[in-house]
Amino acid sequence: MITALDHVQLAAPPGSEERLRAFYADVLGLGELPKPPVLAARGGCWFGSGSVQLHLGIETDFRPARKAHPGLRVTGIDAFATRLSDHGITVTWDDNLPGHRRFYADDPVGNRLEFLEPVSDGLS
User: Fold this and answer.
1) Residue 80 near residue 74 (C-beta atoms within 8 A)
2) What contacts 96, CB < 8 A, 6 or more positions away?
3) Could you tell me which of 62, 28, 26, 29 has the C-alpha nearest to residue 44?
4) Distance, CA of 21 to CA of 5 (rounded, Å)
5) Does 53 fall in a domain?
6) β-bridge pairing 92-94 and 52-58
7) What's the predicted TM-score (pTM) here?
8) What is the DSSP track for the chain?
9) Is the distance from CB of 73 to CB of 84 less than 8 angstroms?
10) Number of domains making up the chain
11) Which of 115, 110, 108 is CA-nearest to residue 24?
């Protein structure tokens, strides 16, 4: 039986690891996770925070994911959006998910990312 989501993998073009590290570690604040040596030889990089893991794998014929995307839950979504904007990243707000505030942004290779935070109803 499936008990949890272990990680999400996105593709990236060859030679993009430094741009990915600058974005996922420095801008988003995720820690880089060590890859096993046999997998490290393939390139790419892994990032995580708590139980969340994002793996970026190198794909020779890379095309960014424009519709498919991970949804990353954040706290303090307004400050998080400002952080991305301050780094020159376009933030696109979307109010179509009831009970949440959310926005979309692209990583440095064009993959779509969703950032969302549940809205408190003030009853809890």
Assistant:
1) yes
2) none
3) 62
4) 23
5) yes
6) unpaired
7) 0.92
8) -------EEEEE-TT-HHHHHIIIIIIT-PEEEPPPHHHHTT--EEEEETTEEEEEEE-TT----SS---EEE-SSHHHHHHHHHHTT---EEE--STTEEEEEEE-TTS-EEEEEEEPP-S--
9) no
10) 1
11) 108
Q: Along the 124 residues of the chain, how does pLDDT read in single tens digits?
A: 998 899 999 999 999 999 999 999 999 999 999 999 999 999 999 999 999 999 999 999 999 999 999 999 999 999 999 999 999 999 999 999 999 999 999 999 999 999 999 998 655 4
CB 29 within 8 A of CB 50: no
Contact 108, 24 (CB under 8 A): no
Is beta strand 71-73 parallel, antiparallel or unpaired with respect to 112-118? parallel
38 occurs within a structural domain: yes
For residue 99, the enclosing domain spans: 8-118
What CATH number does residue 95 fall under?
3.10.180.10
Please indicate, yes or no, if residue 19 is contained in any of the structural domains: yes
User: Could you tell me which residues come within 8 angstroms of residue 61 by beta carbon, excluding any fewer than 6 positions away?
Assistant: none
